[in-house]
Inverse folding.
DNA sequence: GTCTATATTGTGATAGAC
DNA sequence: GTCTATCACAATATAGAC
């Protein structure tokens, strides 16, 4: 579906998404969003009353595009090692397509942590299933004892961090290997899960 | 040294540091920096000509406080497992004291990646020593084969991510365990390095 | 060096014609 | 629904007195 096929309201939301996600709330300009959408500023206010309202729509979409997805996966009823492999692969693929989203969400949440409270109740957030699953594997002796919370954060960290820190990685760590980043991420879809599984399996 | 002992220029830089690191460049207000320093706006411009110049000072300080530190450690001549343990512990301690710094640096770099280019040349950035060290251990058969670049990013990710993502961790993952975050970080000083070492050692 | 007052520009938001 | 023109205010920056 090309841009021409979208109605004005959709065009605005899509333009706002592009600008807000790249620049953040404070850095985004209504003028830039209007330009991106090929309309003028006044129309933005006609459809969405304020910058805040427009932002809220964009943020909620981005948030609910990512978070419930992983919450489901974490709770799902598949073997632990399979779950880790799937989690890592699927998540990295999502970020590969939307590399700015992780930084956007993290920055906006730290700018306004209260925002999250209004959204949590909409998602069934309960890491208990995963925690039980990890503890069962520990009891069975298939993995080393580990704090399940540390494991969850490790999984998130290994998937998300490369995208949040891409300027540092590209320019400092890979400064001698220009263009290596994409290949690095490609490798990571399997490397990261192997890393995690090696870390916990007996 | 209390605030009273600082001269005006130092007070301004310290105030700017507090405000910029918490709010980011776009979110920071010169008025707020002036208030924080206990002076008025005009004096900010007397000492630093513009908001940009003031920010640049703050950013450089924060950047050079963190990055050369780890570059040195990564290059240093100590055994791999010791190096990993030291790296994780020291880095997490730094972030414990300055939890906003990682997010600040990452966000500002992604907002203006060009900034980093002017700074890199000042640091001797060369991961080669670490890469050689990892490959030697692989050849000796003490660790599994691993891409050293993946390993470096994993180490950074496990240390830095919890601070960048603290709102998500506190409100979503630990929503049933209020106040747990600090203890979680404390544990992590040793848990994260054990995780890494388990992942690579044979 | 430090202040008050003011200039200047940028930006979100609205009024009103079509 | 969409536009042009404009308002109102916020924020950086400067002038000038002390």
């Amino acid at each position: 579906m090309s841009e021409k096929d979208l109605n004005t309201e959709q065009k605005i939301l899509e333009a706002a998404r592009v600008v807000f996600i790249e620049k953040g709330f404070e850095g985004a300009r209504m003028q830039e969003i209007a330009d991106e959408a090929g309309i003028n500023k006044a129309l933005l206010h006609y459809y969405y009353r304020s910058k805040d309202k427009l932002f809220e729509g964009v943020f909620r979409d981005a948030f609910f595009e990512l978070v419930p997805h992983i919450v489901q996966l974490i709770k799902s009823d598949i073997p632990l090692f399979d779950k880790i492999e799937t989690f890592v692969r699927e998540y990295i693929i999502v970020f590969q397509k939307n590399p700015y989203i992780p930084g956007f969400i993290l920055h906006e949440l730290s700018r306004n942590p209260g925002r999250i409270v209004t959204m949590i109740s909409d998602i069934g957030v309960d890491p208990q299933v995963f925690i039980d699953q990890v503890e069962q594997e520990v009891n069975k002796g298939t993995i080393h004892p580990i704090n399940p919370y540390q494991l969850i954060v490790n999984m998130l960290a290994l998937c998300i961090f490369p995208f949040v820190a891409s300027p540092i990685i590209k320019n400092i760590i890979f400064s001698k290997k220009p263009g290596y980043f994409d290949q690095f991420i490609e490798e990571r879809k399997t490397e990261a899960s192997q890393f995690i599984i090696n870390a916990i399996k007996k």
Notes: Chain B has a mean pLDDT of 94.
